[in-house]
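Amino Acid Chain and Its Fold in Token Form
===========================================
What this section holds: a protein sequence and its matching fold, both as plain text.
Structure line: whole-number tokens from a learned vocabulary of local backbone shapes, matched to residues.
Purpose: to set a sequence beside its fold so the mapping can be learned.
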Amino acid sequence: MGVGPDADKVIAIMRRVAAAEIMPRFGKLSPGEVTEKCGPKDLVTIADTLAEAALGEALTRLWPGSVAVGEEAADADTGLLQALAGDAPVWLIDPVDGTNNYVRGVACFAVIIGFCAGGDIRAGWIHDPIADTTIWAKEGEGTWLDTEAARRRLRLPPPKAVAQMTGSLGYRWSKRLKERLKAGIGLSVPRFVRYGCTGREYMDLAAGRLDFAAYTRLKPWDHAAGVLIYREAGGIAQVIANERPYRPQPAISETTLLLAPNQACWRGLKSTLDLPGGRATS
């Protein structure tokens, strides 16, 4: 379908790597196969590093002249993100999104792949290795759900009233909103959840099981693919500080991203949630 990387070939690579490197180790990691990066809540496993290497090798071979930027490599050398400002197409790779869940044996993690060119996200894939399903999109071609048996297009359902929505909101923000309610500020607020896996949240956003989400400290491997998938399903993804559409940046962006079914819902949620904008990016 269309130009750019062959969607089926990318899905096949993700499934193959997940089957070889991720699923055999799920629930079977030894203490020596899990290490801390910046603290006890920031973990990396042997599955992350091996899957990232395998994905990077296969994807750059699929699209000659492209470069791979994986989460673990970029965590060690943030300068690698400058590839997003270069001329070569870039694969953004999160080999095991939701590593803390993965380590604890919680069946909520994902593989995320984004394909960027000219500073924009052109295609994105999110694979759930537990269910063996993939949600993906190409720019201008819609959002699609692939299972072993079938492929179908995803479109967002009609939006609900803000007070009837369920969305992903960080603990600190939801706590602040609850404090405002206790202070007697009259608000009709939505229900909040957090999966501990951004990729799985994006899958549920595209499928209409979540109505909105807000994220800060934006790492491009977490959000580029998911934002395109959500947009192609009909949603809005804008940075609060400047109300511009999200674009992957060659750095970790200290700003806030809000996703909603349409512009009216986006503005209603922005007003209701009163989220900090952070520093705007271009």
DSSP finds eight helices and 14 strands in the chain.
